[in-house]
Each structure stands twice: as structure tokens, then as C-alpha cells.
């Protein structure tokens, strides 16, 4: 039950903008390091439309508005 409440809190917090702080952050097909890499995302500001927990990220995984995939929020700051 507690997990359901956390999901609702995350859902109400999107969309939001983030700044990618590193030049070689992987974009993945799903929310976790167990999903394939598709490419890298350059430093810049992007919009996140969904957040999920997953393997390999303490802050969670954000789905990019562009549809390119998922990025680890560990290497981003909210703007």
C-alpha cells in the first residue's frame, strides 16, 4: 500500500525539466540498466514525463518527452 502512495506522488510531480550534467549519459529502452542502451544524451535541458524506479539508479529513471527513451536521474538536476 505504501508503494502505491509513492507512485501517486511521483505521478503528480511530472512533467518537469531536468539538466543533464554529463556528456555521455546513456539513453535506455526502459527504466533500468537491464534495458538496452540506444544512444547517449548530450548536456542540456530536457522534459521528463514519467518517473520509475529501476536497477542502477538511486533517484529513479525519467522517461524523456521526446520519446528517445529513459535516463538515470542520478546525473541530472531539476530546473
Verbal overview:
With 79 residues, the chain is mainly beta. Helix content is 14%, strand content 42%. The strands form 2 sheets. Strands 6-5-4-1-7 form a 5-stranded antiparallel β-sheet. It has a two-stranded antiparallel ribbon with strand order 2-3. A hairpin with an 8-residue loop joins β2 (25-28) and β3. The radius of gyration is 12 Å and the shape is globular. The relative contact order is 0.28.
The DSSP helix count reads 1
Largest sheet: 5 strands, antiparallel
E-strand count: 7
Mean pLDDT: 87
Q: Give the CA-CA distance, first to last residue.
A: 31 Å
Structural class: mainly beta
Contiguous uncertain segments of 5+ residues: 1-12
What general form does the structure show?
Answer: globular
User: Over all CA atoms, what is the radius of gyration?
Assistant: 12 Å
**How is the largest sheet built, in terms of strand order?**
6-5-4-1-7
What is the percentage of strand-forming residues?
A: 35-45%
| Element pattern in H and E | HEEEEEEE
Helicity level: 10-25%
Amino acid at each position: 500500500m505504501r508503494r502505491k502512495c509513492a507512485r501517486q506522488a511521483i505521478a503528480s510531480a511530472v512533467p518537469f525539466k531536468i539538466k543533464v550534467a554529463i556528456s555521455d549519459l546513456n539513453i535506455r529502452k526502459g527504466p533500468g540498466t537491464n534495458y538496452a542502451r540506444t544512444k547517449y544524451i548530450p548536456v542540456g535541458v530536457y522534459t521528463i514525463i514519467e518517473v520509475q524506479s529501476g536497477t542502477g539508479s538511486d533517484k529513479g529513471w525519467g522517461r524523456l518527452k521526446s520519446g528517445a527513451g529513459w535516463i538515470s536521474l542520478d546525473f541530472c538536476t531539476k530546473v
